[in-house]
Amino acid sequence: MKLVNGILGVTIAVSVLTGCNTQGNVQGEGKTVIVSEDVILESIISDAKVAVSQPEQIALKEEVTYGELLKIESEKLYFTRENSLYSTSLDHGKSTLIEHIAARHLSRNGEKALSVENNHVYVFTLETGEKKKLAELEENHGDVGFADPEGKYIFFYEFSESNLVLINTATNEKTLYNFNELFDSPKNFSFPGGMIHHNAVYLATHIQDEGTALYKLSDDHKVEKMITLKSINDNIFDFEFIHDDLLVFNGVYDEEPGIFFFDLKKGEVNKVVSGGTSSEGTWVPSYSISPDGTKMLFNTILHKGNQFLDNVFIASIDNNQLSKSIQIIQNGDLPAVIKILAHWNEDSTAFYIPRSDSNERSYSDLKINYISVYELDKIKTE
Prior knowledge:
mainly beta
């Protein structure tokens, strides 16, 4: 089992299944695809270089679990424990109490923390120490999360009124998007994710009998369909903007699993990393984009005996395509997909992957033993 992202911050566990067939051929098109042990060397040689350099391994002196970890950035680790937010330096390992707040999320830039306490939503600004109440939640609501990398907005869903609630964390201004009005009272629907980009709301929404599409909601609540998936069984798991003209998503498109780039100017979808499908099921690769939008981490799955092992790559994003793939982890036993595990420095010069020596506990309770530090200029190949 691998931990993957779910609907608007909710995490779900799914089985990752092999993409091999009886001939051991690569399924589908795209960059580096590893589907079975007998084709792994061929796939690496044809699609990627192999890193010969090793990341710096920093033993974690403070005992922190994956469930407590919020963010690693600039060699500082942030975690939550017993309704309090802490930080610890990877250098000396001494913990510092930041605030008595039950932080659920940190914004990607590390400036704001989000908490829910007694059905009240708060945002805490780390630099100023300001704690602000944003909303009081109804009894029946979805998960609460940041809607943008800077923590300028939060999202949550009210089931009783079918409202997606967007709140400006600076002004407390609330905007409601009623799904019955937007989508003409669908019988059944779900939305795997949403985000804010240039003041517009983007939602990946699945509507019964219609399938999944990516929608743009403007300030005047007009709905524009950005991407229409081709099959009723197609789906979008995660998506984000790399830059204004390029969007990345993973899922199933035209019945093929993978990671896809969507060129907004051309209106074209291009698969850049393939997943796998077999009689046992389907697995979808995961990704993590650097803050500056120039690099992408992704992981594929190797089925070896009774194990599902991870192969992790880093690639450059050039001219709306992937290039210069380098394999940085081979046959790793990771507790979650790279979208969850990878933590980038905000300047995109390095990333961190927390590692454990054990896999005997559930993901949330699993202890982190050390941090693998990858500095981009130190990743060397043969």
